[in-house]
Design brief:
The complex is a heterodimer of chains A (215) and B (508). With 215 residues, chain A is an alpha/beta fold. In chain A, 54% of the residues lie in helices and 10% in strands. Chain B has a single domain, classed as Alpha-Beta Barrel (TIM Barrel). In chain B, 53% of the residues are buried. The chains are: A alpha/beta (215), B alpha/beta (508). The structure holds cobalamin.
Chain lengths: 215, 508
């Protein structure tokens, strides 16, 4: 199969929400010694960007973007170990995101993670109910540029403050942008705890973080 | 403009019958056969797939009771018979009591009762210019909303109405301060927001106000919500809440909260299977921990609105799920506690009125034991005193509708019809006079003609009239006061909670 065909197939797997197809084309690309970075950039990433645009235009909806992202991730996960140090695309920055300790609300955070990925950030989604120490460690281990925390309950928001303290204690607060979100969270709260950016929703997050990283 | 005083209004809430005879007016969104299929589906899920229980204490008690426990993954599988037997141990009826409001019985067959909505993070009301605005909630709002619910005739229970946002990160025990305000404002039973490690202070509150440990065990003030994280995950919060609350014999709220399309199948029946399996596991564990502990089977389930990207509290699907849960509760013979009058609207508008009616009335007709939702705006983020005031009217009207039509000799009134004959009127008849106060009588909703309405209410919409009335309640209503010595003791408990909060890093 030609490089162009592989890329088209990869893109189609994302546009068609076909995880199995995405995995198959990734494996085929490896087997055929294709340009893997090209398959990612012009295939999987191009596909998710198209879905992302249609999502922004409200022509596609949550299930579509979730399924497309799952197909893209499945394909890229197979290709990643084979890249041999090469990076695919120009990353806008490394973004570690998690729902804060004690809180299991994950839907909003996952949407934000996907939209950041679509916008070109390298996103590490740690999951929900993540201890502050684990978030700090993930930031250090991955040399994150931005860390986003989600809190949906007034009883767990306090851990966003704890995270600020722990990032300071770990000596990395100066080199990382902190971003807070979640329904009860506000600009006031961000100011109060000294977080850099508050975002009301996924679009607001992408916009403000692009600004913050100077893009 | 004459402000109508709360006490001036001769509002007659149709006497809530204690035991419901009117079974013909009953909404069944599920047949008994369908309930059985959902139940079997839930048992199948619990037996074959099981749930993930992160806390070793829960794993231990489940193992002791004959569940199949895998400590490494936390997966617990429940034998069918075990679940069936444990559900039967939960009482069919129980009384919910508070510090001074009359205790009420809950169980299958009673007319619906209502609790105000919680836990909001925003408070919305009219400002001095008549503009409806929202702001973050604070500890005083907890008192205000609790006391309004206490003043109004339709609230037998209260959910912690909102959060003390200003106490977040203050180093103080936010929940203890919230509960201190709540208990001064509302004198009945609560579903409270005590965090697990502080439920013991809730028990202290009960002891102080009831006078003894024995009484506190017998008449708990607090129902504790023990929701799972769908699908089938039971986290630290669940474990802490159920372990601590059953210790003190506080009723367990076994709440299903699955979101169709996101955390359970998009189909309503599939969603019910997931939610019911979680509720059953919760009731089973409550019974393992404290045999005979009172349990509500509850629902806050709804759809994930895929086009909007969030759940909906005012959707007809929400109404169907709540009503279905009530049918399931009847199938089990357990009291139900479900999402009733709720809305996604940000304002007190047509949308709010419509959504609250469809969600509240369906569950009322299904005979939900207890509803939550009144006062809610914005899909569960906001509470409003004005909305609560109007919801009180909505509840009166729904209860009225739920009474149905009685047909017997007296009600057919043939003698009167013959006596009056063609062309007469029925105004002065003894029956009419005797029933003056038995008609539906809204407190806020206006039935006057335009001229009279303009004259007495200045042409104001119902929300503004509600605002005037509720402002009066806020200013003048005094909940049954707590005696001074008891108040000092409660404050001491709150100080203890504050002290403990200083030295603690965990939420639960
Ligand atoms: C869905 C839901 C759940 C689901 C969560 C499922 C899941 N896997 O996520 C379930 C049923 C499990 C659940 C459980 C509970 N919930 Co809940 N839940 C909700 C609900 C209804 C919607 C949340 C949601 O998903 N919204 C849709 C998404 C898309 O919106 P979002 O989360 O706000 O996210 C957007 C923005 O906030 C922002 N954002 C979010 N995160 C981040 C992160 C970053 C970095 C950035 C930049 C932006 C950002 O962008 C997102 C996309 O636009 C809210 C009420 C509400 N209307 O918000 C209550 C609510 C949050 N829950 C609440 C509570 C109390 C609970 C429970 C304790 C049960 C209970 N008693 O009700 C348990 C807690 C369990 C636990 N240990 O955490 C309360 C919190 C109250 C308070 N004062 O703190 C709320 C407000 C409801 C209420 N009024 O009672 N809940």
């Amino acid at each position: 199969m030609t490089q162009a065909d592989l890329e088209a197939k990869a893109k189609q797997a994302v546009l068609g929400y076909q995880k199995a197809d995405a995995e198959a084309v990734a494996k085929q690309a490896i087997a055929e010694g294709a340009d893997l970075v090209g398959v990612i950039e012009n295939g999987f990433t191009a596909g998710i960007q198209e879905v992302g645009e249609l999502f922004a235009q409200k022509k596609l909806f949550l299930p579509h973007i979730m399924a497309a992202a799952a197909a893209m991730t499945a394909g890229i996960d197979i290709l990643k170990p084979e890249l041999g140090g090469k990076t695919a695309g120009e990353s806008k920055g490394k973004f570690v995101i998690a729902t804060i300790e004690g809180d299991i609300h994950s839907i909003g955070k996952d949407i934000v993670a996907i939209m950041l990925g679509v916008a070109g950030f390298e996103v590490l989604n740690l999951g929900r109910d993540i201890p502050c120490d684990d978030i700090v460690k993930a930031c250090i281990d991955n040399k994150a540029d931005i860390v986003g925390s989600s809190a949906l309950m007034t009883s767990t928001m306090v851990n966003q403050k704890t995270l600020e303290t722990k990032l300071k204690a770990a000596g990395i607060r100066g080199s990382i942008i902190t971003n807070v979100g979640g329904a009860p969270v506000s600009q006031d709260w961000a100011d109060q705890i000294g977080a850099d950016v508050y975002s009301e929703n996924a679009n607001d997050c992408v916009k403000k973080i692009l600004e913050a990283v100077g893009d | 403009m004459k402000i109508i005083h709360f006490a001036d209004i001769d509002c007659v809430v149709p006497a809530a019958k204690d035991k419901k005879e009117n079974v013909k007016m009953k909404l069944s969104v599920l047949t008994t056969e369908e309930c059985a299929r959902i139940h079997e589906g839930a048992l199948d899920v619990l037996e074959k797939t099981g749930g993930k229980f992160l806390d070793p204490r829960i794993q231990e008690v489940c193992k002791k009771n004959g569940c199949n426990v895998d400590p490494a993954s936390g997966i617990i599988k429940f034998p069918r018979e075990l679940v069936n037997n444990l559900i039967k141990k939960a009482p069919k009826e129980f009384e919910i009591s508070g510090r001074s409001k009359k205790a009420v019985k809950v169980g299958v067959g009673y007319q619906s009762k209502f609790a105000n909505f919680g836990t909001a993070v925003k408070y919305a009301t009219f400002d001095d210019n008549g503009k409806f605005v929202s702001r973050a909630t604070n500890v005083k709002d907890v008192y205000t909303m609790s006391k309004i619910a206490d003043a109004l005739p339709n609230f037998d229970m209260s959910v912690t109405p909102c959060s003390a946002n200003e106490l977040i990160g203050s180093g103080k025990s936010k929940d203890a301060h919230e509960q201190l305000e709540a208990i001064q404002g509302f004198t009945g039973h609560f579903m409270s927001d005590w965090v697990a490690k502080n439920i013991k202070y809730g028990f202290e509150f009960e002891k102080i106000l009831l006078g003894s440990e024995e009484e506190a065990y017998k008449h708990p003030f607090y129902t504790i919500g023990c929701p799972s994280a769908s699908p089938l995950v039971f986290d630290d919060r669940f474990a802490g809440n159920i372990i601590e609350s059953t210790k003190y014999k506080m009723p367990t709220m076994a709440m299903g909260m699955a979101l169709n399309g996101a955390t359970c199948p998009v189909s309503l029946a599939g969603g019910l299977v997931v939610a019911i399996s979680e509720s059953l596991a919760t009731i089973a564990i409550s019974q393992m921990l404290q045999p005979g502990n009172p349990c509500w089977i509850g629902s806050s389930g709804t759809i994930m609105d895929m086009k909007n990207g969030g759940p909906s509290c005012g959707a007809p699907e929400r109404a169907l799920i709540s009503a279905a849960y009530v049918n399931m509760a009847e199938y089990y013979g357990l009291p139900s506690f479900i999402a009733g009058p709720e809305t996604d609207s940000k304002l007190i508008d047509y949308q709010a009125g419509h959504e609250k009616t469809i969600t509240g009335y369906m569950a009322t007709l299904a005979k939900a034991s207890m509803h939550f939702g009144p006062g809610m705006l914005e899909g569960g983020l906001c509470t409003s005193p004005d909305m609560l005031m109007l919801d009180n009217d909505l509840i009166s009207m729904m209860k009225y509708g739920d009474n149905g039509i009685v047909v017997n000799d007296e009600e057919l009134a043939l003698d009167d019809i013959h006596a009056v004959g063609p062309g007469g009127d029925f105004f002065g008849l003894p029956m009419t006079i005797a029933r003056m106060n038995m008609q539906s009588t809204p407190e806020i909703f206006n039935r006057q003609d335009e001229g009279n309405w303009l004259e007495s209410f200045g042409g104001k919409e119902s929300a503004l009239i509600a605002h005037e009335k509720v402002t009066d309640i806020i200013k003048n209503y005094q909940p049954d006061p707590i005696d001074r010595d008891q108040m000092a003791e409660l404050e001491k408990i709150v100080s203890m909670a504050d002290e403990a909060a200083k030295n603690s890093t965990s939420v639960y």
